[in-house]
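Notes continue from the previous slide.

Worked example: a multi-chain complex. Inputs as given:
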Amino acid sequence: MSRTLSRRTFLGYSLGMASASIWLQAAGSVRQTTDSVIAVNGPLRPSQLGVTLVHEHVMVDFIGAAEINSDRYKEDEVFNTVLPHLQSLRRLGCETLVECTPAFLGRNVRLLQRLSRSSGICILTNTGLYGAGNHKYLPGYAQAETAEQLAIRWIDEWRNGIDGTTIKPGFIKSGVDNGPLSDMQRKLVEAAGLTHLQTGLPVGIHTGNGTAALEEAGVLKETGVPLDAFIWIHAQNEKDLSFHERLAHAGAWISFDGISKTAANDYLAMLKHMKQHSLMDNVLISQDAGWYHVGEPGGGKFRDYNYLFTGFLPLLRQNGFTEAEIKRMMVENPARAFTIRKPPSLRLK
Ligand SMILES: [Zn+2]
C-alpha cells in the first residue's frame, strides 16, 4: 500500500474488497466469522480472556522519542524483575493483562511474549502513537505525516506484525492532554479512527480531562467510528461525573484505571455513581500499575499488580457490589471492549 494515498483513496480503499482481506488475514487462525481478541501469543475468543486488568504496564521509558532505544535496558533483567509480579497476579486469579505502553515509550513485544508464556497470563499490546506530554513521545514523522499516513503505519502493524515480529496489536493506543486538543493530537485521534475503520481494533486514548474526551469522541464520530469502540482511558482525571454519564450514554467505555490503596475511596465513589445511573455496562477498572522504569537502578520502584484483588474487590463487596457486578467489570466488559469486530465498512455488507 502506497504511503501517499489521499484521504479519498484511503476511504475508498476502506470500502473495497482489499479491506476484507486485511481483516481476514489479520484475524489469523480464528474463523473469519467469529469475533476475536488479539493477544501477543495470537488470537483468542473473547470468552477466553477471563479475569482481566485492562490498563497496566510492564516497562516504561520516559526519556522521550528523540533518545529512546533498546540499548537503554537489559531485556533479561527486565524479564526477571517483572515475571514474579505476573506470577503473583496469576495466583490471585487474573488471567489477562492489557499492556498499555505505546511505541516510543518502551513497548517491547518480544519481551511481552516471553513474559506471557512464562507467567501464563495472556497479554495484549497496542499500535498507535502517544501525543500527551506535549508531544515529547512522538517521533519526527508524526509531525510531517497526515492522519492517513500514520494510519497506514498502524494498519501495517496489524497486518504484518510489530517490529519485525509476527506479534500483532490487540488495540490502538493514543494519548492527549487536557482539551482543547492540539492539531497534532486531533490528527492522532483521527488516525486512530481511520485505523479502526480498517481493522476493527478498539481505540484507547489516554486523556487529560472530560473536555478532551468529548472532543476525541467528536473526532471519532466524524471519522465514522462507533463510540462503543472508544475507551476513555484515565476517566478518573475528570472530577465532573456528568462527563462520564454523557459519554457512557453515547456508548463509550469509561476506564477508571488508576486504582490504588490510597485512592480507593475515590474510585469507590465513582463506581457507585456509575451504578446509580445504570451505567455499569460501560465501566472498566484497572490500576495503571507496574513497571520497570528504564534508566533507574534495578528498574526503580515497582508498584505490584495485586491490590485490586487483595484490597479493592473486597472493598466493593463490603459496599454492596454483587459478584455479578464484579464479574461484569472484570470479565464481561473487558471481553466486549477488546473484541475486534468486523470493521464498520464490512458490517454494512
Ligand atoms: Zn498507563
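Summary box: The first helix runs from residue 7 to 15. Residues 273 and 317 are 16 Å apart (CA to CA).
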